[in-house]
Every structure is written in C-alpha cells, then in structure tokens.
C-alpha cells in the first residue's frame, strides 16, 4: 500500500488527561491487541512508569483499520512522553507525524502542558484533532472546555470529538477522523534515504533498537546505514514495525514508521533527532531540528558502603546504554568517599535514575542536593562551569546562573498566591493574561535554581492542586551569588555547600542550620553547626550531647515494637555518612531544598 493508506499521528495531552487510556482503546478497537492481552496501559511499558502513572519513554504502535471507504489503512501511533523533562523527545516524535490528537480533560480544561504541546504541534505544522475526554465524569463541562480551547489556543473546535477513554465512547469517531482529517505522508519514495530517529532503547541481545520515521527513500535489511550527526556506520540486521509487538519486515518506505537493530552499542550512538541515510547513496543534507540535549541538574551519588563503588559504576554504565541524557563522572570527597557526579535533564529524570539504581541494582545511596550548572570567569580569565557548589573558587568574577521562562496557568483565585511565590523565588514578571473569565496565565523569568527546588510542590499547594506550569531554559544571567558553606563539628561539610543569592544567604543559612539541628541525631558530645560565607560565620546552632536516660527509654515497650524499631534503625543507619565525626543522615543532604 502506498502512502495514501498511511496515517502517522501522536497523542498530546496534559499529564493525566487520559492519553494512555485512549491509546489502549485505539489498540483494542482496531484489534491490534486483544483485551485479554491488555495489561493496564499497553504503551506505558516500564514498571516505574506504571507506578508513577506517567509516560517516560515514547513508543509506537501500528494498527490496521478498515475505514468507511472500505479501504484498509495503517495507522501509526507514536506515543510521546508526558513530562517537561522530556520535551525534546516530544518535539522529535511530533516531527515524525502529520497530525495529532489533542486530548483535553473535559472536567479540567487547558493546562500549561496542553499549551506547550500545542505550540510544538503547530511548529511541526500538524493537523490537530481536538478530543474532549472524560465526558463520563459528573463534573465534565465539554461546552465550557470547547470554548476555552477555541479562545485560548485559537483552534476551531466545531468538530471536536466528545469522548470517554474509560468507557470507550467516541473511539469510532476518533479513528474515522484520523483517516479523514490527517493528511497522508508525502510520496518521497524515489529520493535518497532520510529517516528521523525519534526514540531508541538498549536491548541486551540485539543492541540498540532505533525507532524512526522514513521521510525519503527506502531502507532494506542488510544495507549499511550512516548516521549523519554521529557519522557512524552500521549494517542493518533487522527491520520491523511494532504492532505493538515487533513484526519483522524486509523493507520500510517513505512515510512508514518502524525500528531497526544494527548491533549499536549504546543509545548515545544513535541519538534522538539524528538522520539515518545510506552509506552507498547518502542524502545531501540531514533533516533539521537536531539538538544535543544538555543535562541541567547535577547531584552527587555515593554508595553508603564504600565497597559498593564498583557496583555503582557498573550500574550507571548499564543505565547509560539506554539513556543518552544521563552523564556521570567519578567524584571523590573526603567526607563521602568515592562516588559519582551525575547530570540529568531535570528533577524527574534524576528521581527515576536514583530509583532504578536502588531498586534494580539494590544500591543504597546517599544523594546530595540537586544543583544547576553555574558559569564563572576564574581569576586567570578562563571560563569555568560549576556543577558542584563546593568547587566554586573563592575568587571568581561574573558568576552566572541559568534562567527559565516559566508559564503558569491557574484559576484566577490563586493568581495572588502564585505571584507571591514567583517573586519570593527571584522571579521577574513578564506577562499576565486572562485565558478565559476564570483562568489566567502568568509568565515569569526566573532562575532555574529556584525551580528545581520545591517550586512545583509549592505551586500545587498554593493553588490547591489546580495550577499547572511549564518552563524552558532561555540562557544565563549574572547575579550576586555566593557559596554558602556548612560546618559540622568545626569541619566544612563539602556535600552540604550550596550557591545562593547574597540577599537570601542569611535566611537560608539560618534555616539550614536549624533544619540540620533537627535532622542530625544527637551524639555523646555537643555538635556545633554553622553556616558561613568564606571565613565569616552567618548562623550557628548546636546539638546538645545525648543523655544516658534517653537511651534507656528505648529499651522499654513490647518486643515486636522494639524489633520494628531496631529494623528501622538498621535501615536508617545505612543511609548515613560521617562528617566531622558526626553521623549525618540522608535527609540532611536534601535540607537545603526545603528552606524556601
Ligand atoms: P501520562 O501518561 O502521565 O501523560 O497520563 P495520561 O494522559 O496517559 O493519563 P492516563 O491515561 O494514565 O489517565 C489518567 C487517569 O485518568 C487514569 O486514572 C485514568 O483511568 C483516568 N481516565 C482516563 N480517561 C478517562 C475517562 O474518559 N473518564 C474517566 N472518568 N477517567 C479517565
């Protein structure tokens, strides 16, 4: 079948608006998956994803659908990740499509991510089919939300589809609309091969599996391909399509979506956004839009037991085979011993990697507070990038930090509270607009460092869960920043150092020593805790020595309770590092995040 019988589409939505549930319904309705084979949400394959209810890695599925005209169409669904950390992957998977379904929860409305995704879809000139989902909910107001989408996004919603992914309402209309309204791919079969990589993952047996969309030409098994950015060459061992299980094919043609295996060692060798061409007949120019993703957030990872360092190194190596955005290098500190400095796309990415290290590799880790990447000029005029606050030299000039453009969408009742929050976090007001009578968008320029702490949690709590946010990094800016050191028992605790604005240094310093006083268990001796800028102490507290009778109390009570307690302590004890002869628990390393 030629391109006229192919439709390539994605589903875009704000988190929790029902993307995965709808994808499952499309797979069921087209008979691609039998309901008895359907695990809860087929496209979200990873356990972690299912537990967290979010889509981390995108995926694809080819469905066969007989339309009203009696013809059989191949509908290629390209799934997109649902979180801001993975925005670049969303943009690449959209570039592999001609159209998309825009899912909006009819009981909620337009959210920050809805907007961000729509902008990406419009940039890629996609046909957008609006689906108002969850109409089964008693609180659903499809007419209000339809007006909202029209007013806010400017999309014609006269033919928006009312649906319930949960109760399988509107699924036929959606399938029909995909065929009727989304244009078929252009017929570029006669050209030199160009295929866009929109995802890849590491398979221990076949090497990296690369997902791609053929834009021009054709690709056959056995051909040698060349990746135009990495300049690497590979012979194709296997070609196939996902339906959603892999089905091998001999060739893929312009307009089609599929996967290849070619004994590629790590996903970093076949990065999302790269262009595949043929070695024997290379295309003149790579496809546009490629961007190297840069880690934005760094933290230290240290095994609690020093002898597990080699295990940690091996585990990170394995994770990196599958995660081109993860970077790490060894870090040694007198307090922490051997560990790694690791870079991530954002906080969610960081949490996912940490969780996998602990779960899949049974590693107990001490994790230091996340920090952004600063830049400064050293005294000899060199340009330094600082991803570890304790490495900021005492003498430097021109310390710069990354800034983001932050967009918040909120019911109007919470505008005041959110403006206050943004201002407290050094936000610079850019714009405010009324999306509808009830909802407002607020735009701020704000240091990334202020966003990676507890900003999202604060936004949610100050808006009773109703506000949403979205941000993108815009550049670097010089500010009056200082390194805040923490001393425990008169020794500098390097992993607790942070970089803060000078105006906030006293408040943060006072808050931090107070918090540490609560978090660090008492010992047999008195422990002074201080915050300092250079040699100047700006805040101090002390933990008084432990009295004997407090210990004695622990030994009363019933046996099972005591056992539980001991077990808990044993576990808790693992998550400690000794600094200045004092045992410092994991929570203390994160204390700086909650000062606000
Ligand atoms: P991400 O994968 O995180 O982007 O979320 P998602 O957009 O894929 O949302 P998902 O499909 O996981 O649905 C989120 C929640 O909404 C789940 O609890 C679903 O059961 C529920 N849900 C989805 N569609 C409907 C619907 O039509 N009606 C009702 N009542 N609930 C729905």
Mind explaining what this structure looks like?
- With 596 residues, the protein is α+β, with helices and mostly antiparallel strands.
- The chain has 15 helices and 34 strands.
- The strands form seven sheets. It has an eight-stranded antiparallel sheet with strand order 11-10-16-7-8-15-12-13.
- The longest helix is centred in the last third of the chain and has 18 residues, at 502-519.
- The N and C termini lie far apart (59 Å).
- Residues 13, 15-21, 53-55, 82, 133-134, 136-137, 164-166 line the site of guanosine-5'-triphosphate (GTP).
- It is an enzyme of class 3 (hydrolase).
- Belongs to the TRAFAC class translation factor GTPase superfamily. Classic translation factor GTPase family. LepA subfamily.
- GTP binds at residues 13-20, 79-83, 133-136.
- Keywords: Chloroplast, GTP-binding, Hydrolase, Nucleotide-binding, Plastid, Protein biosynthesis.
- Pfam families: EFG_C, GTP_EFTU, GTP_EFTU_D2, LepA_C.
Report the bound ligands by name, code or SMILES. Answer: guanosine-5'-triphosphate
Q: In whole angstroms, how far apart are the ends?
A: 59 Å
Q: What portion of residues belong to β-strands?
A: 25-35%
Largest sheet entry = 8 strands, antiparallel
Morphology? globular
Helix tally equals 15
Low-pLDDT sequence parts: 48-58, 549-559
- Structural class by sheet pairing and helices: alpha+beta
What strand line-up does the widest sheet have?
11-10-16-7-8-15-12-13
> What is the percent of helical residues?
25-40%
- The gyration radius over C-alpha positions equals 27 Å
Protein name: Translation factor GUF1 homolog, chloroplastic
Pfam family, one: GTP_EFTU_D2
Main location: plastid
EC number: 3.6.5.n1
């Amino acid at each position: 079948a030629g391109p006229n019988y192919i439709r390539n589409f994605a589903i875009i939505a704000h988190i929790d608006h029902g993307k995965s549930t709808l994808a499952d319904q499309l797979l069921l309705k087209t008979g691609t998956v039998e309901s008895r084979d359907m695990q809860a949400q087929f496209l979200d394959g990873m356990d972690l994803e299912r537990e967290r209810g979010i889509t981390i890695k995108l995926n694809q599925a080819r469905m066969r659908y007989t339309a009203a005209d009696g013809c059989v169409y191949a509908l290629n669904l390209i799934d997109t990740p649902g979180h801001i950390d993975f925005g670049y992957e969303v943009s690449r998977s959209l570039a592999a499509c001609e159209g998309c379904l825009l899912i909006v929860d009819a009981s909620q409305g337009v959210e920050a991510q809805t907007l961000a995704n729509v902008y990406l879809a419009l940039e890629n000139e996609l046909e957008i089919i609006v689906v108002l989902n969850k109409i089964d909910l008693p609180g659903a107001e499809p007419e209000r939300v339809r007006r909202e989408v029209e007013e806010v996004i400017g999309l014609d919603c006269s033919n928006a589809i009312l649906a319930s992914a949960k109760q399988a309402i509107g699924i036929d209309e959606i399938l029909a609309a995909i065929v009727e309204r989304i244009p078929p791919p252009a017929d570029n079969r006669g050209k030199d091969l160009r295929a866009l990589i929109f995802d890849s993952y590491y398979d221990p047996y076949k090497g990296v599996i690369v997902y791609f969309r053929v834009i021009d030409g054709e690709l056959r098994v056995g051909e040698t391909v060349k990746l135009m950015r990495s300049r690497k060459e590979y012979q194709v061992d296997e070609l196939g399509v996902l339906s959603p299980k892999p089905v091998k094919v001999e060739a893929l043609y312009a307009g089609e979506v599929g996967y290849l295996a070619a004994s590629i060692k790590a996903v970093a060798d076949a990065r999302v956004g790269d262009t595949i061409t043929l070695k024997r007949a290379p295309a003149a120019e790579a496809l546009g839009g490629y961007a190297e993703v840069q880690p934005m957030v760094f933290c230290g990872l240290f095994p609690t037991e020093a002898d597990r360092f080699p295990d940690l190194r091996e585990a990170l190596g394995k994770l990196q085979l599958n995660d081109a955005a993860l970077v790490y290098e060894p870090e040694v500190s007198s307090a922490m011993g051997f560990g790694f400095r690791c870079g991530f796309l954002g906080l969610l990415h960081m949490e996912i990697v940490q969780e996998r290290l602990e779960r899949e590799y049974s590693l107990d880790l001490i994790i230091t507070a996340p920090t952004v990447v600063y830049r400064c000029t050293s005294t000899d005029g060199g340009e330094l990038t600082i991803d570890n606050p304790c490495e900021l030299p005492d003498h430097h000039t021109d310390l710069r930090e990354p800034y983001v453009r932050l967009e918040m969408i909120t019911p109007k009742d919470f505008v005041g509270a959110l403006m206050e929050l943004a201002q407290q976090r050094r936000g610079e007001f850019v714009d405010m607009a009324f999306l509808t009578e009830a909802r407002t968008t607020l735009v701020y320029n704000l240091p990334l460092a202020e966003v990676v702490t507890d900003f999202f949690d604060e936004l949610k709590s100050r808006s009773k869960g109703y506000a949403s946010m979205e941000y993108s990094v815009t550049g670097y800016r010089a500010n009056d920043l200082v390194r805040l050191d923490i001393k425990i028992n008169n020794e500098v605790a390097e992993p607790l150092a942070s970089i803060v604005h000078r105006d906030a240094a006293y408040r943060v310093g006072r808050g931090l020593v107070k918090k540490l006083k609560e978090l660090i268990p008492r010992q047999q001796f008195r422990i002074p805790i201080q915050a300092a800028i250079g040699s100047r102490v700006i805040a101090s507290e002390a933990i008084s020595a432990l009295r004997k009778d407090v210990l004695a109390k622990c030994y009363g009570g019933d046996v099972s309770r005591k056992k539980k307690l001991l077990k808990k302590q044993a576990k808790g004890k693992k998550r400690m590092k000794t600094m200045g002869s004092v045992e410092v628990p994991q929570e203390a390393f994160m204390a700086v995040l909650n000062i606000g």
